[in-house]
């Protein structure tokens, strides 16, 4: 058994292994899963049992993406063997308690994101080799140290991303082998091609043939791209391994491990019609943590009614314009993601802005933190630079005369009149300026071939998603109900005041017009 009795002498090796496993918070789950997986007589886990534990088979109904590598369906059949081979060193009789803990720590222990990414690449390289496919990825091992060189092709990277998606999907479901869709992550692949490929910045990203091209993505550059653009990607392997081992723990432990997951087989067919498709939501989630990470993934894993709870505003549904936007967003005091789909020069693209506070009607910039996103066709995100705090600008018309009127609309970054992103009050025109105008967010292009001159684009649709969680939404609903009640009360007319014609203001005005010189007796 994994747990030792009080009278048993614990070796330093075992104490160290248990201490490292405890630092991950998974020691209790590992003890229970070892007890269920191991042979009661030998007190070891047979390799075949551990391989069966990590077996992942998928049956996807559809695929968002237009390009599908032929090798992918068979790739996942070898994932379980690769995980066991890369991390769990077994003896002839199987895997003892210490080797089991050490294997888990090698895969899921506390380590840098760079080391975790190397683990992911090792698993992917081994899986590719076992499937019989060829790859330019080269992994060398010397005394337990691994050196990863070579390159990946765009199709290889797409399979790596899909492998991560499959592992992440499985870790959020209580049952294995559930049906799911392969999401469209072409925006991530094109982002890597633009950043890592030779002449990537000059490539035509609107050309679908790039995904199947032989452009080489050097591992060193790809490593930097992952750490900068999708730093949470290696966590997919960690969560998959933990969730699979949790299934062999008692019911209570399994419930704890899957507490963050939603229903087993949600229907997210309607979510494909949103700007925030499951693929785009997952892409953004790879840059987020905490509550926002979980809330945005509801688009991928929750039922449609749960998805709609987070949708605060959609121009094609609620109507275009700043007033319609404001009536749906006002009172939401939490992180808000704004997505804007626009077209310019016969190409459509989508950008986004994430702010961490409620929207206010102000004629100046405000905010505490935020990020800008280039979402499609090429993905990228730009966090705060720390130089300025012009995170968001949202200004409605002011009643009365203004000597120096401020722009009416929504803006992100830059300054008044020179916003990096500015959406006009009718939600019909979008202006995107070069990052040189902006010191709040890090520099970078928000859409392909963005030049130095401001770009004026036609708005196709706007979506606003609340990422603050259920309690924040409940507070907003209460606020909107109060506002609606106040509005109805202001519209009501006290009929008792106007039922007597002799006492009405209209009667007094008509008498004054008809006979202005008549003496009016003042009532006291």
Automatic annotation (TrEMBL):
Pfam families (alphabetical): TLD
Occurrences of domain TLDc (ranges): 283-468
InterPro entries per the UniProt record, alphabetical: TLDc_dom
Record-linked PANTHER family: NUCLEOLAR PROTEIN 7/ESTROGEN RECEPTOR COACTIVATOR-RELATED, TLD-DOMAIN CONTAINING NUCLEOLAR PROTEIN
Protein's recorded name: TLDc domain-containing protein
